[in-house]
Amino acid sequence: MSHLEVLKLRGDGINGTLPTELGLLQDLQYMRMIDTQISGSLPSEIGEMSSMRAIDIIWSEISGTIPTEIGNLRNMFHFQVGVGGVSGSIPSEIGQMTRLEAFWLYLNEVQNFPTQFGLLDNLQSLYLFHNNINSTIPTELSNAENLIELDLSVSFVLI
């Protein structure tokens, strides 16, 4: 499986945790998990997947924080984790993902809105709706000149 480029998992019968060995899949470009019972955190080894271009994790039991190593995914253009238990802070290393066009982290429990989103020149779509963000919208976001979609509905505890 060392040359695997696409990984799709779907359905209730799929459970367990994401193994740290994911980092060994250097050719993996797209990972999609929908409606699974996969639980636990995204492993820090995800940052070793240098070819990764898109991650879609929807309706899963993923929890914990997003690892700082996510910033190593410089080829990533789409990141989506929806309807899960992701909590804590979005790491500032998100600003290193210079090709990122879409960042969707919705129906989770994240608590911050990093200023580094303003560093992402290619960012077109940012969905952070239904979270527990307890900060203001950073003024640096105005630097994201290509941003055309922004959804922050029901996200802020205080503004």
What's the short story on this structure?
The strands form 2 sheets. The chain has a 7-stranded parallel beta sheet with strand order 1-3-5-7-9-11-12, with no helix packed on it. The protein has a 5-stranded parallel beta sheet with strand order 2-4-6-8-10, with no helix packed on it. The chain has one domain (6-151): Ribonuclease Inhibitor (Leucine-rich repeat, LRR (right-handed beta-alpha superhelix), Alpha-Beta Horseshoe).
Could you describe the 3D structure shown?
This protein has 159 residues and is an all-beta fold. It has a single domain (6-151), classed as Alpha-Beta Horseshoe (Leucine-rich repeat, LRR (right-handed beta-alpha superhelix)), CATH 3.80.10. It is built from no helices and 12 strands. The strands form 2 sheets. Strands 1-3-5-7-9-11-12 form a 7-stranded parallel β-sheet, with no helix packed on it. It has a 5-stranded parallel β-sheet with strand order 2-4-6-8-10, with no helix packed on it. The chain is globular. The N and C termini lie far apart (47 Å). The model has no long low-confidence stretch (mean pLDDT 94).
